[in-house]
Amino acid sequence: MKERIHKDVVIIGAGMAGLTAALYCGRMNLDTLVLENAIIGGQIANATDIENFPGLASVSGKDLISALQRQTESFGAVIDEFDEIERVTLKTSPKIVETQEKIYEADAVIIASGMNRRKIPLAEGRKFETRGVHYCELCDGHAYAGKIVAVMGGGNAAVDAANFLTKYAEKIYLIHRSELRADEVSQKRLFANKKITVMLQTEIKALRGDKRLEEIEIFDKVSGVTKVIAVDGIFVNIGVEPNTKLFSDELTLSASGRIVAGEDCRTEIAGVFAAGDVREKEIRQLTTAASDGTTAALLAEKYLSKLHG
Ligand code: NAP
How far, in Å, CA of 89 to CA of 199, rounded? Predict the structure, then answer.
């Protein structure tokens, strides 16, 4: 039988929004648990150069998140990154968050589950997942020391991934179906690195290999030529999708799959808040994620004060 544990607040997701919420909740002496089953830091975990976080001229995602994690934990919030959530029940009191190992009874829940990487739109993608097809450079990049890898995509995440992988791989192909939309600073670094070959207007048509990925078939849309190149791995960076599958039975989702909640982060269920990129809103930045985390935590505390009379 799973152990049942009571918490004042359970925060789902340890990106900028979730960690900021945890920092505030911890500081208000709330018994706070953060559950994260991907990587602490979320989308910015491996961003190389963040230059638009107020007060910091330039900081890596890793350094920013490590500092925030230390600050959060110093105020007593606990982060568990190994216990995956299986289901949630939000309309009851207390709310239930059931993981593989435990059942948490929470008086308030802050959902800050962010976004997941979009999967490669090829049937073979699944077959090679973790055997050559990857969605996390920070987690898996080290396995490609001295090897040849491809990065698929043309946004900031793809360009940052290619730049990051130069730490390990001997050769990197950045393969993108159209033009790059990453910012200028990251592109400059990309084109300056001799390990990287940039292939634009190029589609990835097939992945091949026996037990693991060995080669990819690519199509140059300008010349009309199809080629096969040998790679040991591919890191897919073709955008993100909201991580809301767990909540779709209980909360209203927008057309883009995000949780509908106002600027106050309150959802339609009392005591349940949505913060950061998972909330339907127009501007999604690190600063607005931190802002959401702050708002959700302060209003969760207000909700708990009322609840406990
Ligand atoms: P993104 O900016 O939405 O870019 C997605 C990329 O994937 C585009 O190049 C798009 O190509 C391509 N793509 C989409 N669907 C595809 C498909 N089916 N097949 C092939 N290519 C496909 O996503 P992102 O780069 O993951 O970044 C997500 C968010 O995080 C963005 O807001 C980004 O700015 C932010 N971010 C920022 C930083 C930073 O500031 N350093 C770092 C990482 C992420 P098309 O252009 O052809 O549509």
Answer: 47
